[in-house]
């Protein structure tokens, strides 16, 4: 195990553990720590006025410091008190896995941190976005339950064959866009590839629609009224640029509804519109409304067709509760209903999410197919027959029988046994010397080999993933691309050392450091660096060294002239310091 566990993490199945990586806290440089501190100080100052009240309360409850990048081991000691945990991962992980982590009350945190050049916003998930954005709000019980429930439902959403390709493309773009020195033409090409994919996705899948809901709530949600909204979405809470911009009239505010599922988004651009929920409870109401549209609850012919189109491991649950998990290949329909289904490759049968004895992927290694529905000319379905009814229709052990279902599906053979659930209802009928046909086409034929016929009048549910997680080997994750670590050189290493010296001075670890000498070195050798001079300005003001503070301020004006893009960041940093000093004077 590559991480420190807690009772919440102990419940994670192996196929989710495969995404977890250790958080190597020693890899964070003093520059990284300064980036975290700047963003958090600015966020807390701004968001204390514009974020939902749960944000500041949550920072304290989840143990997230303003001055230090959170250590997940420390976070987990605190998070377990509210029934949650956090793990580190490498950037984006597949949407279904991300949702499933949420269903287990686990917060997935990309442990990398954005570069100083991208301090306002990065398309790549990072610890600022996850730790400072997601974690505080889950301290609100209503929202935490929404997040868990969202994960539970979202992990069952069915994808299509293009969804994974889009995920890989977005992951690739987020990596190269955050990586230092990526040629602009490579970024343009990656963005064009995503645009082409998005324009040719066809009808959106369930996972695409619920991902939209996730984006407009968990990531970019507002709460309150369109006229007076507050921020709760992690993407806004962690973006010092967009959290301010989203409050302007340039961003359209819409009342949140299920329509948000059909509102697409561009991960590379600030959002031109946002949705406002009246309260956290309403989020759950819309989620349930959306879940009612999913194959998870609707089942039927459309449900199994979604699974066939996805080409992914999925499950159908019949009206008897019997669950068939595998890769579904075909379905025969009659009058708008499925009358026969077929999976290919390893398939397992379960009941109440527990694999049935004798029906593992070993027993059904090449697939599983079965008739569905009612017997022709009979109003009573097999699943509704009592033992006396079954005997009356010769459906019992030792009988040579031929059954014809609606839709011209016939099964003939010798009944060996039946399998019943805990309520005594029959869910499987096992034959030998069996032949299954559709009109004149043979669908299955066996001699000594046993054949199990599923009992079920209809498909009650269809969803992504297996019914029993232990039925399949799901530890197959292979990362196609990993986040790119910035290459260091002597000059950058020296800059990191200057940042570390000032950090140690501020924390009292080494108060003999000459801040004046550090400032001169930065001014002469790193004329474009602005964050360390801002930190030096803060120390000068706190120590009452007004002459030194003025010298730094003059230098920062030069930096602004040479690089106008960072002007507002410098101004904001100085304003924070001046406001703090002014407040302390008034006390």
From TrEMBL:
<dbReference type="InterPro" id="IPR036329">
    <property type="entry name" value="Aro-AA_hydroxylase_C_sf"/>
</dbReference>
<feature type="domain" description="Biopterin-dependent aromatic amino acid hydroxylase family profile">
    <location>
        <begin position="1"/>
        <end position="340"/>
    </location>
</feature>
<keyword id="KW-0408">Iron</keyword>
<keyword id="KW-0560">Oxidoreductase</keyword>
<comment type="similarity">
    <text>Belongs to the biopterin-dependent aromatic amino acid hydroxylase family.</text>
</comment>
<dbReference type="InterPro" id="IPR019774">
    <property type="entry name" value="Aromatic-AA_hydroxylase_C"/>
</dbReference>
<keyword id="KW-0503">Monooxygenase</keyword>
<dbReference type="Pfam" id="PF00351">
    <property type="entry name" value="Biopterin_H"/>
</dbReference>
<dbReference type="InterPro" id="IPR001273">
    <property type="entry name" value="ArAA_hydroxylase"/>
</dbReference>
<keyword id="KW-0479">Metal-binding</keyword>
<dbReference type="InterPro" id="IPR036951">
    <property type="entry name" value="ArAA_hydroxylase_sf"/>
</dbReference>
<protein>
    <submittedName>
        <fullName>Aromatic amino acid hydroxylase</fullName>
    </submittedName>
</protein>
